[in-house]
Write a structure and sequence with these properties.
Elements (H helix, E strand, L loop, with lengths): L3 H5 L2 H21 L5 H11 L11 H10 L5 H23 L4 H9 L2 H6 L6 H20 L3 H17 L3 H10 L8 H23 L3 H9 L9 H12 L5 H11 L5 H21 L13 H12 L5 H23 L13 H12 L4 E4 L2 H11 L3 E4 L8 H5 L10 E4 L8 E5 L2 E8 L8 E5 L3 E4 L4 E10 L15 E9 L2 E11 L2 H6 L3 E6 L5 E11 L9 E7 L1
Parallel strand pairs: 1-2, 1-3, 7-13
Antiparallel strand pairs: 3-5, 4-5, 6-8, 8-11, 9-10, 9-12, 12-13
Helix pairs in contact: 2-5, 3-4, 3-19, 4-5, 5-8, 6-17, 8-9, 9-11, 10-15, 13-15, 14-16, 15-16, 18-19
Length: 559
């Protein structure tokens, strides 16, 4: 039953008040809070627009570019996410069509993660928006087979996938939940049009060796130790996404919800299918909690329609809303830069960058294995920076950009991620930073090592010889003899259970003739004293710099 107050309330007035408050809070928060590291990476993407990036779809770069063209600050970077969230909530409202509008808005505002998603420039924001718009269009398409809906769904599907690859789960479960769609000619038209619209990204992947697929399927968890904790972490992250109260209750009832229509069956497939899919994925590696954010739409729909009919439902929503808003407002004020004397890690990036900039004195800054720090430094200083990746880390977008090529022979400040007595140090807002100033910087990341074999069976303690070739991948010639203070030697690393087992820098010095002749070289190694399977990486070390990622991988079966 509706209360007398709710009967007299003007829905348009309630709607206007909600969106004005939501938008105002989001704008203030976005404008006065430091960017988190991932945001600065996506901002960096927006400076070099492309049809794809190393580990992400290209949509987020374009969306940030649009906002940043209006405001050259944190608000500009986050503007598209703010608008996406407002639009997503409106589309969800149209899908649910709540009779008690104020309680619907309270339900949305009671899910804390949505407040976070509303201000962060991350791919999850457009994914959430295009999931909501897809489901609204899909709901209409189920009721009426119109060609204009097919066109809109094709465009929406493409934008969904270009926002984040997880969108494929939404599309897949929508199709298998209503296989009768395969009988519609308009459905196959959507498949064809979506493919054509998505084709530029496919071509980009092909031209770049499918880096996103290789990374996500084979390299993401290269140094991750697989055990049952990844499953437990995933199971704990599912309810955590819906905290603090109402969302968890909605999730419970959404899982128990009995569907009555084809559209509701689709929502149930998306919810349970996504949760089950990532459960099995957690058996092979870690799952990030935000990967299941697309389930919020079906949870809101099924959870709201169930709880609102309970005698205790409206009171639960109001109490949860009050508690959540208090917690969110406290968190929002803490995160605003300089408002309180609270030194959170996220509030220190700007000061940290300025302190390093002063020490760099105009030099480009290389951060070892940290695209996050490279992005933060460049955004807050406007100075050049890049991630210098090695075998203890992984490749990232900076490898595709070949940024290191730009700084060969230049004076560079290298910020390390470990300490050595020979390093210089400065105190910053985020603790001591260790670095070295290098004149005539030379690196070996553009050198490719190709072993003659991919797999070997060895006996413990054996001395074995492995032939390999070394060549320049692409781009300018690599002068490996240009800096006598940083001679380049062949090195090799052994990993067991994705953890570094041993590291050796050999006496085999790499010279220009080795690269020019492209003839086979020979490396002698000693097999481990321990039984088991090992990954051997043949690499190149320049002076004290950690060994670069050269691709020279051999599997050792040590008996």
């Amino acid at each position: 039953m509706l209360s007398h107050t709710e009967k007299q309330s003007d829905p348009n007035k309630i709607r206007l008040i909600f969106y004005l408050l939501w938008l105002s809070c989001s704008v203030i928060q976005a404008a006065f809070s430091n960017l988190i590291p991932d945001e600065t990476l996506y901002w960096k993407y927006s400076q070099q627009l492309a049809w794809g990036y190393f580990e992400h779809a290209p949509g987020i770069a374009l969306f940030i570019k649009a906002g940043n063209s209006l405001f050259h600050n944190e608000l500009g970077v986050r503007l598209s996410s703010i608008l996406f969230m407002c639009g997503a909530i409106y589309f969800i409202e149209q899908i649910i069509q709540p009779r008690r509008l104020a309680l619907f808005y309270m339900s949305v505002a009671s899910i804390a993660i949505l407040h976070i998603l509303a201000i962060l420039a991350v791919p999850d924001a457009p994914l959430f928006f295009f999931t909501a718009s897809f489901l609204l269009l899909y709901k209409k398409y189920l009721m009426t087979d119109k060609w204009y809906l097919a066109v809109l769904l094709s465009v929406n599907t493409t934008l969904l996938l270009l926002s984040k690859y997880h969108g494929i789960l939404i599309i897949f479960f929508a199709i298998i939940s209503n296989l009768q769609l395969l009988r519609r000619r308009s459905f196959w038209f959507m498949v064809l049009l979506s493919f054509v619209l998505f084709l530029p990204h496919i071509i980009w992947q092909f031209r770049n060796g499918f880096p996103t697929i290789v990374f996500n399927l084979f390299e993401r968890d290269a140094h991750y130790v697989h055990d049952f904790t990844s499953v437990l972490n995933y199971l704990g992250s599912v309810p955590a996404i819906f905290l603090p109260f109402t969302g968890v209750i909605f999730l419970y009832y959404a899982l128990r919800y009995r569907v009555a229509t084809s559209f509701e069956r689709t929502l149930k497939f998306i919810l349970t299918g996504t949760l089950v899919f990532f459960f099995f994925m957690s058996l092979r590696g870690r799952i990030e909690a935000n990967w299941i954010l697309c389930t919020i739409v079906p949870v809101l729909y099924m959870g709201y329609h169930t709880v609102i009919e309970k005698s205790w439902g409206p009171k639960l929503i109001r109490v949860s809303f009050t508690i959540t808003i208090i917690l969110v407002l406290v968190a929002r004020t803490i995160l605003i830069d300089g408002l309180w004397k609270i030194n959170l890690d996220t509030t220190k990036w700007k000061q940290w960058a300025k302190e390093i900039q002063q020490q760099a004195d105009g030099r480009p800054v290389a951060f070892i294995n940290s695209y996050q720090k490279a992005g933060e430094y460049e955004f807050y200083t406007g100075e050049r920076s890049f991630s210098l990746n090695n075998v203890m880390g992984r490749k990232d977008q900076y490898n595709l950009w070949n940024d290191e090529d730009k700084y060969q022979g230049k004076d560079v400040m290298v910020v390390t991620n470990y300490y050595h007595p020979t390093f210089s140090s400065i105190a910053t807002a985020k603790g001591d930073v260790h670095f070295m100033l290098i004149s005539n910087f030379r690196s070996s990341s553009n050198i490719e090592i190709e072993p003659a074999v991919k797999e070997l069976t060895t006996n413990r303690g054996d001395s074995i010889s492995i032939k390999f070739t070394a060549k320049v991948r692409e781009g300018p010639h690599v002068d490996v003899e240009a800096n006598e203070a940083y001679p380049m030697h062949i090195s090799y690393e052994l990993f067991k259970d994705n953890q570094l087992y041993s590291h050796f820098i050999t006496d085999l010095k790499l010279d220009n003739s080795s690269l020019d002749n492209k003839g086979p070289l020979s490396l002698r190694i000693k097999s481990p004293a321990e039984k088991g399977d090992f990954k051997l990486f043949i690499s190149v070390s320049a002076g004290w710099l950690p060994a670069s990622i050269t691709g020279g991988k051999v599997i050792l079966h040590n008996k």
